[in-house]
Fold these 2 entries.
Entry 1:
Amino acid sequence: MSTSSVPWRVLVVDDNPDIHRDIEKCLAAPVRSGSLQALEQELFGAQSSPPRQPAYEFVHAEQGEQGVDACSEAVAKGARFSAAIVDMRMPPGIDGLETIERLWRVDPGLQVVLCTAFSDHSWKQITARLGRRDNLLVLRKPFEQIEVQQMMLALCEKRRIETEARARMAELECFVRERTRANHAPRPAEAARLDALDELVDRRTVELRNVALRDRVTRLPNRAHFAEAVNTALRRSERDAAHRFAVLYLVCDRYSVVCESLGAACGEELLLEVARRLSDACASDPRVLDACASVLPARLGGGEFVILLAGGVTTEGAVGAAQRIASLLEAPARIHGHDLRPTACIGIATSARSHARAEDVLRDAGAAMHRAKSSGRERVLVFVDDTRAGAARLPALEVDLRAAIDAEALDVHYQPIVDLVTGEIVAFEALSRWKHPVLGPIPPAEYIPLAEKTGLVVPLGEQVLRASLARLARWSRELPTGRVPSLSVNVSPVQLAEPGFADRLHAVVRESGVDPSKVDLEIAERAATEGAGQTLKVIERCRALGIGVHMDEFGVGRASLAHLQHYPLTGLKLDRSFTGGGRADPRCMAMVQAILTIARNMRIPAIAKGVETVEDVAWLQTLGCERGQGFFFATAVAADEAFEMLRQASTWALFDGVRPLLDARAPRAEPPDA
C-alpha cells in the first residue's frame, strides 16, 4: 500500500446516486476512537494497530459525457485520476463502453472498472471493442465491500507504480542522453560508470516487474502473473496433447469472518498462513509434486488462491493433490491469540476441456469451487458441463428469490418430530419451500446457501418465523391443550450476527401470543465456531425469555465440548448422516452413543434426523434416543395437513402398527444410572 498522504483520485460515472454513495461508503476509512485504539494496544500490544488505510478523493459524474469532461479537465490540470468506475447503462446518454473509449483517448493509462448488473455484452464483444487490456476489470452489481476495496487498492497502486516507473525511466533516459552528449569519446572510467548505470536500469526494471506481478500481502504471484502461466500452459497443451494441466481454485472459508470479527490485521495473518502452507506443499509435498512436472501457487485477491499443476496431469492426480492441500489447511493456526482453521473448498478445471484463454480456465475452476462450497458436503469438486450452467443460473435465481421474498411468495411446510416411545407428535419443524413460477420447486439446498450469501436469509427467516408462529397460535386455539406441539424454527448464522436479532425475535413471539416455551430455535453447530461470542449472547437472551434452543446437525461440525458446556441448550439434533447406512459402522454407533450420553447428562432430549425405515426406529430405541424425525413418519407437509395429523389419531395408529416389530427387533435399553 502506498504510504503517500496524497489521496488517490477516483472518477465515478453512474446515473444512480445510490451507487455513488455506496462506493464512497465502501472506500471510506474506518473511524476509530482514540479510547478504543488505546484499549486494543493495552490488550494486544502494538502489533494490533491496524494497517494504514488508503485515502480517496472522489469526483462524480451522472453521465458519460460529464465523466469524459472531468477526465479532460484533470489531465489539463496535471491531476490525473488513478482509476474510474463506470456504469454500463446510463440513459439517455452514451453507454459505459463508449464512455471508456473516450476516457482512454484522453488518458490511455487510466485504470477502469466496468460496473454493471446486466449482461449487455459478452466478454468476447467487450474485448473485441475495447481490446484485451490490463487496465480494465468488471465489477458485478450488487457488489461486496471487499470487492470494491480490493479492486481500487490494486488498480490505484498499479497506476502509482506505473507512473513512478515512467518518471524514473524518463529521468534515467535523460541522464544517459546528457552524459552521452557530453562524452562522445568517453574515457574508460566513464564507460564503466555508464555500464553500471545500464546495469542499474536493468535491475530496477526487473524489480518493478516483480512488484507488478506479485501479491502485496503474501508475495505470491498475482492474477496477472498466474494468467500468463496458464496461457503458456494452454499454448503448450495445444502443441503437445501429453502436456496436460489443471487449475485448482480454492477459497479460504474463514477469511471474511475473521476480518469482520477480529479485524483486517488478523485476516492478513490468516492469508500469510495459508500462503505459507500452499508454498510448502507446492515445494516439497510428494502427493502434490507427484501429480505434475511443475506447480505454481498464486493469490487472486480476498481469500481466493489458485494453483497451476502443469505437465502430464491426470484428473485423478489433480483431485489427490487438492485433497492433500485441503487436509493441510485443516490444521489450526495460532493467530493473534486465536486458534483458527483456514479450511477451504477447492474447484478443479483441467485441460481435458476446451479453453481459449486463462480467464476461461479460471471461470470453470471458480464455478466448481462455488458448487463445492454451496453443496455443504464436497470439499473438492471437478468442473463438469452442468457446473457452469449452475453458476450462470445463480444471478437470475437471486433476482427471482429477492422478488419472491418481497412478495412473501414462499410457503412454510411442517415436518413432525415424534416421541420414539409413545409415537406422539411432540413438535413440528418449520421449513421454507419455494415453488418458482417457471422452474417449479427449487430445492432448499440450492436457494438457502444463496440466501445466506446475499443476506436475503434475514428477511426470509423473519417471514418463516412470523408465519409459523401465527400457525402455532391458531393450533393453540383450536386444539386441546395436550395436543399443542412445540415449534422448531431454523436460524442461520447470518441472522445471529444481525444486531438486535434477539429483540426482534422477542417482539415477534410477543405479538403472536404463543407460549414462548413452545418455541425452539434450531442453530447449526457451525454457528458455535463462526461467531461463538455472538451466538452465546443470543442463546442466553432466548433462554431468559423462555424460548428453547436446539443445536442442529450436532456431531459433524467443529463445536468443541467447551462450547457445549457454556451453551444453555434445550435439545441436541443428531445429523442425518448417523442414521441409515451408519448403523452398520461401529464408529458411527460409538459416536451416537456418546452424543446420547451427553444429552442425558445435560438432561435435554436428543432428536435424530433422517429416520426413514423401521430399522432406524428400532436402532434408535435400542440406544435410548427419545425423539425422531424423517420420512418414516412424514415429509414436510402443508399447514392444513399438519393440523389434520394433530387433530386425528392416524399418526398414533401408524406408530402402534409398527410397535410390535420394534419391540421384537429392538427392546428398549435400560436408562443409565444417574
Note: The chain has three domains: 8-158, 223-383, 407-569+629-662.
Entry 2:
Amino acid sequence: MTSASRDLRDGTPQAAPIRRNGRSGTLEPGTTRVAAIDIGSNSIRQIVADVESQGQIRVVDEMKAAPRLGADMSTDGQLGAESMVRAVDAVVRMTTLARQLGATRIEAVATSAVRDAGNAATFVNAVRREAGLRVRILSGEEEARLSYRSALAHFDLASGRAVVADIGGGSLELAHSASGVLDCLESFPFGALRLTEQYLTSECRHKDVRKLRKAVRSELRRHVPAREWRGAQFIGSGGTFTNLASILLARESMLTAQSVHGTRVSRADLEHVLDGLQDTTLEERMAVPGLSQNRADIIVAGLAVIAEVMARLDSKELVVSTYGIREGLLLETARIEPAAASPGEARQRSVKELAVRCAYEAPHSLHVRDLALQLYDALGPLIGCEPGDRQALSDAALLHDIGYHISYDSHHKHSYYLILHAELLGMSPSEQVVVANIARYHRGSAPRKKHRNLGSLSKPMRDQIKRLAALLRVADGFDRGHARAVERLQVRKLVRAIRIRPVPRARQSLRLEMWGAGRKAELLASLAGIPVEIVSPGGAIVTHIPGMRQSE
C-alpha cells in the first residue's frame, strides 16, 4: 500500500487540501479525490477524479499512454522488456500527477496482458520499485464487475435486463444483469489487439475477418445462453465502442458534439462501418474521420467482436459508454456502491445537478418549463413535434438561463456552451446538442442555418430545434419579469389563428407578460403558418402574423 492509499485506509471521506488548476481548496463533505490506473494490453489510462457519495464522478485530470504490453509478448507468453520499460515509465508519470493533485488514494490494476504473462511478477515488482505503487492483477470476472459497476452509476438499469460489454486489447468482458442485479460475468480472450495479431493482416482481408467472426461466434454460443440474454439492453465501453461512435458522429457532421457518451448505434450501422473498413490499408483507415490513428490497426477486429455479440444477443442497437473499468475502480476505491436507477432518472438527476451548479433561478426556470410544456401539449402536433420532443423541451426550459452564471450579456449563448460541455447522463450526443440549441434560442435571433452552431446539423435536427425554441420563447416571454404572474395558459387552435390567453395569479397585472410573449411569438406564428393572438384578461389582443418581425 502506498502512502497515498494509507491516508484513507478506513474508507472514511475526509476533507483534504487539494489543487484545482493551481489553486488550493477543500473537498466537499462526502467527496473523495481518488486516482485509478488501468494497465491494459493496448494502453494505460489514468483518471483523477472527485467521487461523491451518491456516485457522481467529477474528473480532475486524465493521462494516457500506449506501450502496448500485449503486442510485445514473446511466443512463450513473456512481456517484452522494452514494452515493460515504457509501461513502468508511464505509471511513474501518472502516479506523480495523482499525488501532485492531492489524490488520497491511488489504485492500479492490470488486465489481460499482465494476467496472461509468465513474467507478470517482474513487471509488478518494477512498478512497485519505481512508482511505489502496488498493482492488482484482475481476473476477467473482476474486470466485468468493474465495468458493470461503472455502467450502474451512469445508466438506468433498475428495470429490465442489460448486458455491459468491455473490449480491451486482450479480452472481452460481459456482465449480464436483471433489474439492476448482477446475474452472470463472463470473460473471453477476444481483445482487439489479440485478435488482430491472431487473424488479420494490415489489409484486414474480408476472408480473414470472416474466420475471426466464426471463431468468436462459436465461443459465444457455448457460453452465452441466447434465451436468457436475448433482447437485453446492450451497453459497450472501451476504445472500440467510442471510436465506432466517433466515426458515426463524423459521418452525421455532428462536429459540435463534445462527447460520444450515450451514442446509440444500430446493428445495421455497425455492419456498414465494419464492411467499409475491411479490405483497406492501414493508411486508408488512418484517414477515416472520427477514427483515432492509434486504433486504426486494431479497429476491425474490435468491431467484428461487437458484431458477433450483438448477433448473439439479437440486439437492434447498442449504447456507447465513455465510462469503464477506471470509473468502476474509482467507485470501488471510494467505497461507493451506486444504486440502480429507473428509466429517465439519470438524465433528470444530471440536468438538475447542472442547473444547481450554475446557481439557476429555480422558481423562474420551473415556471417557464411548466408554461412551455402547456404550449407543447396544446400546439405540438400543429407544428410537427414528435413524442421525444417533450423531454428535450423540458430539459432546455430548466436550463435556459444558466448562462447568467457567466454573465447577463449574451447569457443565452453562455447557456448553450455550458449545456454543450456538461456531462449529462441519459442523453445521446445529438440530444445534448439539441437541448443546448433550444436553450440558446430562447431569446435573441431565431435559429438560422448560417449560424455556426446550426450549420453542421442535419435538417431534421434544425427543424426540431426551431419547433421547440418557438415554444420556449413564448413561455419565457410570459414570465418576462420573473414574477410568475401567469398561473396557466389557455390555448385554442382556431381556424385561422392560435389564441393564447394567460390566466393571472391573484388579479396581478399581466401588462409586462403580454408584451414579453407578444414580441417573441414570431417564430411560432411562422411555423404554424397562421397568426398567434395573445389575449389579455381584459380582452385586448396582441397579434403576431407570420413574417411580421419585432425587435427583441
Note: Confidence is low (pLDDT under 50) at residues 1-25.
